[in-house]
Specification:
alpha+beta; six-stranded mixed β-sheet; five-stranded antiparallel β-sheet; 20 helices; 20 strands; 42% helix; 17% strand
């Protein structure tokens, strides 16, 4: 797990409404990205921003009361809602914000589940601003991440300033403070397995800055190591390979002001000074070098071939289109020459008319050609990717899942969720898209669910075999989807329990089964389902002749309405019941919306109250007896 504190707004202002909307997925995220939301010292999510603003007004001096941080789990880790709340509470306590107002949302729009937390720094008790962790918020958040990993059993991150010993105790690495690098540089190292420029600068450039006795000596030494010093405003930065580093971030003893105090007035480097190319970035973690390098070369080859093919196709099309434009140009030029070559003395009006019409026709031809050529170009580009995948995404789609994990978490031992004993309760949409394929022995292909290392089913070529220990409706559906794609209708062989799972999956996912008896049962259930889901009409209810001159309501209101009356008709095939309220009012209720199946003749009080329009049922006769007692 890692903790991050995003950069604040450039204008120096903070907005509780914008931050909370982002955390809860109202803005900036796709539909369904937020899996869970939590709050602390807040009455309602809808009024959270107003409540925070109201409290922030009490502190006149605090200009930035909104505080934002992120907790991110590994790609194979899926916390429960209770674990998310626990993780946020641990982080808030470590940041000394445990009593403040907070709203958080668990989001799934990246490879890693992560929670965004919006906090109001104004204490509801003292009405004063709280400085997170006394100004050491990044350090506190990293320590909180280690505590969460220990408390919830996640894989321990080996990077950063904190370590965990064999007794499970967290302690700070004393030697890391000198060579500590930014989170951005740590991300680069974690994703590539190579040293970042910031780490190289801290190790090789910091001594040069500290020991230089003149500007000339400093510029020469920097150039030999592939760095240059550039003045920016009132400060200066180190440049190398397109990356800029602040002097103070490389060495706290060598800010631009301190250098000028020690070396005198700044002197620019010689124009003829040659800056050596930075040596290849040193590899931090040897065990994955060979495999990552081979994959990188393969990726580069595929990427180059892709762009060569794409560029060649576009170039060829453009050449053909250029020939078409030239042909049109010469043809139109010839038509104009023919028109002008005729003698028009005494017929200038007719000549002007024909000249205008010819210009009109030729311009239409040019516009049509331009539009058709643009359509051809767009159609050609549609056969190619808009953006070629990054090395990380490309590696994730390869068959070797272990290689991706080594690349994603270099130098760290990775356990599968099953091996580490972590229970994954994340609700996922299960079908064939949630599986990964890898080659097995004897030409078979193994299909494993995301986050699992055991195959749900195996494709043996002419048949697909399912794992009995992982036999569920979802795994059967995924196997049938693959079989339908390969062979069309599928022959099912197995016991009655397995065939029942196949029938349910075929009905739910629209799949084909070739067994005559099973296919007939699938079609029967589909027809019953279609009939059950069909709309109940007023005419259909009136034909039942339940009462004289009825007032029929096929769509009763669901906004906190209550209906008390006797159940006079139940149609289980269609999935509805009819309730008589008063003398003539008939209300139609869908059976799946009721908390229990009603009985004909019962007098019930049906109330719709919650957001999902689920109806609660209370037996009216029992309620009256209780009241009489």
């Amino acid at each position: 797990m890692i903790g991050k504190i995003p950069k604040p707004r450039r204008d120096g202002r903070s907005s509780f409404k914008a931050l909370i909307n982002y955390c809860l997925g109202v803005t900036g995220h796709s539909t369904g990205a937020v899996l869970y939301a939590g709050k602390q010292n807040i009455n309602d999510f809808k009024t959270a921003a107003i409540e925070m603003e109201s409290l922030a007004i009490e502190s006149v001096r605090c200009k930035t009361p909104a505080f934002h941080f992120i907790l991110s789990w590994r790609s194979q880790e899926s916390p429960t809602n209770e674990q998310v709340d626990e993780a946020v509470n641990i982080a808030l306590k470590e940041l000394n914000l445990e009593n403040c107002q907070a709203v958080w949302g668990l989001q799934s729009d990246t490879d890693n589940l992560h929670v965004h937390v919006a906090v109001n720094r104004i204490s509801p008790e003292t009405f004063k601003a709280v400085k997170p962790a006394g100004g050491y918020s990044k350090k506190a958040l990293e320590k909180a991440a280690r505590k969460i990993e220990l408390a919830q059993g996640w894989e321990i991150e080996n990077t950063g300033r904190y370590e965990i010993n064999s007794l499970g105790e967290i302690f700070e690495k004393k030697e890391i403070s000198k060579n500590e690098i930014s989170q951005t540089s740590r991300d680069v190292e974690a994703h590539t397995g190579f040293e970042s420029i910031e780490r190289i600068a801290k190790r090789e450039i910091a001594p040069i800055l500290e020991q230089a006795v003149s500007w000339e000596e400093l510029h020469k030494a920097l150039a030999q190591h592939g760095f240059t010093l550039k003045v920016r405003g009132n400060g200066a930065v180190l440049q190398s390979s397109g990356t800029n580093l602040k002097l103070s971030s490389v060495s706290r003893k060598c800010s631009f002001t301190q250098l000028k105090h020690r070396l005198g007035t700044y002197i620019s480097p010689d124009e003829n000074l040659v800056v050596r190319n930075l040596a290849p970035i040193r590899i931090l973690r040897e065990p994955i070098v060979n495999s990552i390098n081979l994959s990188w070369k393969k990726y580069q080859s595929e990427r180059n071939n892709y762009f060569q093919t794409k560029n060649a196709a576009i170039k060829k099309l453009r050449e053909l289109q250029k020939e078409e434009r030239q042909k049109l140009y010469f043809r139109q030029k010839e038509n104009r020459s023919d028109l002008f070559s005729k003698g028009w003395r005494g017929h200038w009006k007719e000549f002007n008319q024909l000249k205008s019409i010819l210009a009109f026709v030729q311009q239409k031809e040019r516009l049509d050609l331009r539009e058709s050529q643009n359509d051809e170009l767009q159609e050609l580009k549609s056969h190619f990717l808009k953006i070629f995948p990054s090395f990380r995404d490309w590696l994730a789609n390869q068959n070797d899942e272990n290689l991706y994990r080594l690349y994603r978490y270099p130098g760290q031992f990775i356990l599968s969720p099953e091996q580490s004993g972590i229970k994954i309760d994340k609700t996922q949409k299960i079908d064939l898209r949630n599986y990964k394929a890898r080659r097995g022995a004897s030409g078979s292909v193994l299909y494993c669910r995301e986050g699992s290392f055991t195959a749900d089913f195996s494709d043996m070529g002419k048949r697909i075999i399912l794992n009995k220990k992982k036999l569920t409706e979802e795994s059967v559906a995924a196997a049938l989807q693959l079989a339908n794609q390969k062979w069309g209708a599928t022959q099912i062989n197995g016991n009655a329990e397995y065939k029942e799972l196949c029938i349910k999956a075929a009905v739910k996912y629209g799949l084909k089964i070739s067994n005559p008896d099973l296919a007939a049962e699938v079609e029967r259930r589909r027809q019953a389902l279609r009939q059950r889901n069909s709309v109940v009409t007023v005419e259909e209810i009136s034909k039942l002749n339940l009462v004289e001159n009825p007032k029929i309501y096929v769509n009763p209101r669901k906004d906190n309405q209550q209906y008390t009356g006797r159940i006079v008709h139940i149609d289980e095939n269609r999935g509805y019941c009819v309730q008589l309220v008063g003398q003539q009012s008939l209300f139609v209720h869908r059976l799946e919306k009721l908390e229990r199946p009603p009985l004909k003749g019962e007098t019930l009080k049906i109330s719709y109250s919650d957001e999902n329009h689920r109806a609660k049922i209370q037996c009216e006769e029992v309620r009256k007896r209780i009241q009489s007692l």
